[in-house]
Specification:
198 residues; 4 helices; elongated; alpha+beta
């Protein structure tokens, strides 16, 4: 057995270290960010994201919607939505979208001869996601032996399947959602795909 040469305290700390490991695989080191200032259709952006969740059969949840008076220039609005989807008995997708608006005020504008309401504000949108492994908790986290097995499965046996079949497609899908939001807000990006790169 590989643990025999080590001391009891080392074994305990080694197994404790495995026990606290997370079995979620985040898609990005930091969330994707979009920032915009101007007049835009916030309701349209919100519906676009909602449709994205529904078309991919995610269960949609609205965690928070807070609208508070911030300055005489407008309100501060915070909205957090998330969705989850069980892909297999072992993998589950979890995607969050956070909106934060400052100096938000609805104003009337004329588009194609019709008077409609649009939002004038500064907006910050963050997209994030992760692939949750063993979402049904079939492996007992309090059992050190089962933790070692689960860790070996995820890091070695299922690594290719996790990265290629689940992480990469969801990553591309979220980047696609980012592009749809940019198009809706009429944000232009340069050839590198990253704003202000040059």
């Amino acid at each position: 057995m590989f643990l025999l040469p080590f001391s009891t305290s080392f074994k305990y700390s080694f197994l404790q270290g495995i026990y606290i490991m997370s079995y979620d695989r985040p898609l990005f080191p930091i969330p994707l960010k979009l920032r915009y200032k101007g007049v835009f259709d916030f309701k349209g952006v919100y519906e676009l994201v909602y449709r994205w969740y529904r078309n991919r059969q995610f269960r949609f949840h609205e965690r928070r919607y807070k609208d508070k008076t911030y300055t005489p220039l407008g309100n501060e609005i915070e909205a957090n939505v998330w969705g989850e989807k069980e892909v297999t008995e072992f993998y589950k997708y979890h995607v969050t979208v956070d909106y934060h608006l400052w100096e938000a005020k609805e104003i009337p504008v004329i588009i194609k001869g019709k008077k409609v309401k649009r939002m004038r504000a500064r907006i910050d949108i963050r997209l994030d996601g992760k692939v949750v492994c063993d979402w049904q908790n079939r492996y007992d986290r309090s059992n050190p032996f089962q933790n070692v097995i689960l860790n070996f499965l995820i890091k070695t046996v299922l690594k290719y399947e996790l990265e290629v079949k689940h992480v990469d497609p969801l990553d591309k899908d979220l980047h696609n959602l980012e592009e749809q939001i940019k198009k809706h807000l009429k944000i232009e990006s340069d050839a590198s795909g990253v704003e202000g790169f040059y």
